[in-house]
Design brief:
alpha/beta, seven-stranded mixed β-sheet, binds zinc ion, tRNA processing, RibonucZ/Hydroxyglut_hydro, metal-binding
């Protein structure tokens, strides 16, 4: 699992900072999460093969989280994309995007499939044989969801040495990987745990932006490997956080601590601050395992 931060600053794009967008690489998927203005430029700059993106998850319809989407959709058309593109986001996203396509008479030659979200409860929005994605309902000025990405447990790994020692035919390998014992021609049963090794532990990633401090999300994100939580403000502006329905670095750390996550990544910094180091300092007063997101930064969790 890898995470590429394309943009992680609040509000307006600036010379050296970009609004929210990130790419999660998980089990052969490239999931784009939020698509602020300039996302396609950032994808090119950081050499991410964006033709491989088939699923885009949009948290909410504030401009700094989705104004890059119509441009990206248009570029895909110009590049001759043929594969379907799935977009998950709040109700209204289909209307917003299709209005622009209609006015410009520039319909895509690939299938655009919208999955509009309205529920205030967590929904399973994507599932295949290796990954699930659930919404995490958040508390912001407009309807907003975070997203929880979970790998499914993988099959057990063959212990090739043991399998060969017992001269087991390859046609039984799939049965062994799915957990079955093997009966040899001699009638001896070889238990599965002798023929296999534990698969890697499934990983999980929770994206939570934008939101006011919302402790009720803790049970859903309990013990995730990585939590990205917005931290728009420092303690000096803590009174602004509830008014604007954003969180402080310390509040993000409180959530991380209560959920006992493996790592907290902070982002969505207000552009009023000259340096982002203080965000880490304030969060670490509450929770130790903190990293700062920054534009162009990648995290490898494999
Ligand atoms: Zn917002």
């Amino acid at each position: 699992m890898k995470l590429h931060i394309l943009g992680c600053y609040a509000a307006t794009p600036r010379t050296f900072t970009n609004p929210t967008a990130q790419v999660l690489e998980i089990k052969n998927h490239l999931f784009l999460i939020d698509c602020g203005e300039g996302t396609q430029v950032q994808l090119r700059k950081h050499k991410i093969k964006f033709s491989r993106i088939q699923h885009i998850f949009i948290s909410h319809l504030h401009g700094d989280h989705f104004f890059g989407l119509p441009g990206l959709i248009s570029t895909f058309r110009l590049l001759g994309r043929k594969t379907d593109l799935h977009i998950y986001g709040p109700k209204g996203i289909k209307e917003a995007v299709t209005l622009l396509l209609k006015l410009g008479d520039s319909w895509t030659n690939y299938l655009l499939i919208f999955h509009e979200l309205t529920s205030k409860e967590s929904d399973l929005v994507f599932e295949d044989e290796k990954v699930t994605v659930n919404t995490i309902p958040l508390d912001h000025r407009v309807y907003t969801n975070g997203f929880l990405f979970r790998e499914k447990p993988a099959e057990r790994k063959l212990n090739i040495e043991e399998v060969k020692k017992h001269q087991i035919d390859t046609c039984y390998y799939q049965n062994i990987k799915s957990g079955k014992d093997i009966v040899l021609d001699t009638g001896v049963i070889v238990p599965n745990h002798k023929l296999t090794l534990d698969p890697p532990r499934p990983k999980s990633y929770a994206f939570c932006s934008d939101t006011a401090y919302k402790p009720s999300i803790v049970p859903q994100i309990n013990e995730v490997d990585v939590l990205y939580h917005e931290s728009t403000f420092l303690e000096s502006e803590q009174l602004m956080a509830p008014k604007t329905k954003h969180a402080t670095a310390k509040e993000a750390a409180n959530i991380a601590k209560a959920a006992n996550v493996g790592l907290l990544i902070l982002g969505h910094y207000s552009t009023r601050y000259a340096s982002i180091e203080l965000f880490k300092e304030e969060a670490m007063e509450v929770f130790e395992r903190v990293e700062l997101a920054d534009d162009g930064k990648s995290f490898d969790f494999s």
